[in-house]
Amino acid sequence: MQTDICFHCHQPVPNGLAIQEKVLASTRSFCCYGCQAVAQAIVANGLEDYYRFRTQPAESAKTTDPVPAELVMFDEPDVQQEFVYQHGELSEIELTIEGISCAACGWLIEKQMAKTPGVKQVAVNVSQRRALISWNPDETRLSKVLKRLGRIGYKGFPFQPHEHEASYHREQQQFVKKLGLSGIMTMQVMMLMAAHYFDLLGDMSTLTRQYFNWIALLLTTPVVFYCASMFYSSAVKALAARTVNMDVPVSLAIVITYISGAWATWQQVGQVFFESVCMFIFLLLLSRFVEHKSRYQAMQTSANMLKYMPVSATKIEASGQTTVLARKLNPDDRILVLPGEIIPVDGCIYEGSSYIDEAMLTGESTPIAKHSGDAVFGGTLNGDQSLKIKVSATLNASLISQIVRLQSQAMASRPAVAQLADKLATGFVFTVLIIASASYGYWYWQQNPDALWIAVAVLVATCPCALGLATPAALTCAMAKLNRHGVLLKRSDILESLANIDTIVFDKTGTLTQGNFKIMASWFIDPDQKEQTLSLAAHLEMQSQHPLASAFTTLPQAKYGHFDLQVISSPGEGLTAAYKGDEYKIGSPAFTGTNDIALPFCANVVMTCNTKAIGAWRITDSVKPGVETVLRSLASKNICILSGDSQANVATVTKTLNINTGYGELSPGGKLAKLQSMQHSGHQVMMVGDGINDAPVLSQANVSVAVGNGTDIAKASADIIFLSENLTSLPLLFQISAQTKRIIHQNFVWALSYNAGILPMAVSGLLQPWMAVVGMSLSSIIVIVNSTRLIKTSI
To answer: Is residue 48 within 8 Å of 42, Cβ to Cβ?
Structure first.
């Protein structure tokens, strides 16, 4: 008798056990309810392709581990391959977090998750409702990380653009339902209470007043228990973690007002403020709703770039063309992209030419001509011709995926002002609770019948929501604005550092100039050996990544001749090779030791054989379009060039661009020494570069920028990356930095001034609860609206 095999773990299914589930359009059998639950979770999360493409059976879910079965699936290697990234010994995942309501939620998640064994870093982006978590897989499992997150009251699942979007809309619908119900009930209760307080019906009897109170209580109850439920759950999460957040005083105010009103109605004595509690909840929901929408608009530009990636791709195989999932493409696969289609992954064109719209990446609307051999990037739009592309990276490793991860990492580094705001907000909540308690005690001792309402007004009016939003709201909007223009920040605190920059240092080649090098003058010690010398120079330069090498590798002489060379590269300086018993060097005059030889022109590349110069070349480049305009807009900064090119070429560029200072013939160490000298003189220096020989100075600079045509190592060393090859975003960067700093200060001044001004009024009893509600809600809305000016302002 044949035994059924568990579809999930491939273990035998016990005889007589009928546990089944529909997976991949067929009914499957499972060996236990644990395996069935994992399969259900995989299907429910849209990960059903795991079963189609997995390479080995999953582990059995028969376990005494208390981790829920729906989380166990995230420990499967094939599932993790899609959204877990490796950084040395650590694993990293980006999660969508449901249940985040304010800045205090992010603080709570970071503090509590950091206590989880094996978790090394937690960074929550409240605006985007996402968290970046790094952990050591040898110490803990992803399922346990997710379980810990659930225990503190938040649901987390791997960030997937479409699911993230769906999560936002689910929360949006909940907001609309609660906001609508609270709005309707508030209007009804206010009409009843208006008649009650102002005796609009004329000489209202006690029985009628009591009847109105009971109706108001009935209408208020669903508002308190349903509409305000998010505030209670947030407060409970904080208290369970032995801390307080902004929803603690909010919840206390609601509960106290409701219970006291219900007691007064039952006992037929005292005041009721049902209209105030309804209005409080309605306005608080309204402010959170506006905040929710503003955050979504702020992050929409950058946070969900992956949602525009096509799900499928046309793969070219020996048997013909087939449609496959884009995320299953691997390097060296070949795909066909038709006109008007979005390119699904990064790759290199091997057949065809077309115009590619890269506006989503660079912010530049003009399509770029791409030909065979050119690189293309996933998410960009193919123009009017078909292209055949060789895949160079999986979807996880694509440029657009790196951009999304980079933005999450940027928000992980919090500026000093953001850290100060967190500390102030948390401390302020404790202070508010103490002051509210003291106010009640004092006015109760003074036998003031409104003692309780004064305490409630203090709790409501001084809730530091605006203070907690002051910095993250502005930073999120600033980064979204920069992303629209193709500028990526690795750290959000860089915006703070930019304000102090007084000196900008540029590399010349490939940064200020186009990098299209041409040989303008040449010299050979033996004219009869010109072709042989050029051919040897070209084959040597093929081993170099220096931009000047392109002037040789495109020569016809590079296409013929065979040289058995053992080449040693000195980055930024030159190359050394042995050939037929002789030692050849090619590079800068300083590297080849030929500074003192007499030549008919100033050469920046010299070739020697056994220390004797046998060839020399003057290689020049043209300035990039728009550079002069950019430098004029930065006239308030000290501008300097540090280059490995000849001093003559550097002097030509400095004269063309009206730059006062330019240093040429510098090795990477020389550039570093010059930059350190500027810093020792008290200057705050920004370095803008693109090449391998710029990596040391990019790392040393106070702020570093790598332009879009820069090498990977330069980008790894830089704080800021321009996706475009031009420098037109540089003035924008300084302008946004200044605006961000100004708006953060405005937010802080407003938040602190409001709390400082409203507190004495609340404590003294001059502020009615409904006034406190309006003031607190408006303070948060003002901060959000003020921050979104960063996105809407035209630059």
So the answer is: yes
Is residue 536 domain-shared with residue 615, that is, in the same domain? yes
Which distant-in-sequence residues (6+ apart) come within 8 Å of 724 by Cβ? 362, 363, 364, 486, 707, 708
**DSSP of 451-510, one letter per residue?**
HHHHHHHHHHHT-THHHHHHHHHHHHHHHHHHHHTTEEES-TTHHHHHTT--EEEE-III
Sequence letter at residue 363: G
Element (H, E) at 350: strand 347-351
Q: Please check whether residues 600 and 522 belong to one and the same domain.
A: yes
Are 611 and 686 in the same domain? no
Q: What is the DSSP letter of 604?
A: S
Question: How wide is the angle at C-alpha 191 spanned by C-alphas 188 and 195, nearest 5°?
Answer: 145
Q: Does some domain include residue 295?
A: no
**Separation of alpha carbons 140 and 155, rounded Å:** 19
Range of the domain at 707: 491-513+625-723
Given a contact cutoff of 8 angstroms between Cβ atoms, the answer to whether 112 and 152 are in contact is yes
The answer on 384 and 523 residing in a single domain is no
Domain membership flag for residue 246: no
In one-letter notation, the amino acid at residue 16 is: G
pLDDT tens digits, one per residue of 144-200? 888 888 777 677 777 766 555 666 677 778 888 888 898 888 888 887 777 666 555
Is 143 domain-assigned? yes
Is residue 435 situated within a structural domain?
Answer: no
- HSE, CB side, 13 Å, CA atoms: give it for residue 600: 8
DSSP string, 748-787: HHHHHHHHHHHHHHHHTT-S-HHHHHHHHHHHHHHHHHHH
CATH number for the domain spanning 552: value is: 3.40.1110.10
CA distance 92 to 123: 11
Domain end among 39, 71, 103 = 71
**CATH for 670:** 3.40.50.1000
Structural domains in the chain (count)? 5
Residue that the structure tokens 């038709």 belong to: 338
As a whole number of angstroms, the distance between CA 340 and CA 333 comes to: 21
Task: Specify whether 636 is located in the same domain as 591.
Answer: no
What pTM, to 2 d.p., does this model score?
Answer: 0.58
For residue range 556-579, what is the model confidence (pLDDT) as tens digits? 766 666 677 788 888 778 899 988
Q: Looking at this protein, which amino acid is placed at residue 795?
A: I
Residue 91: closest CA among 146, 46, 41, 48 = 146
DSSP β-bridge partners for residue 122: 133
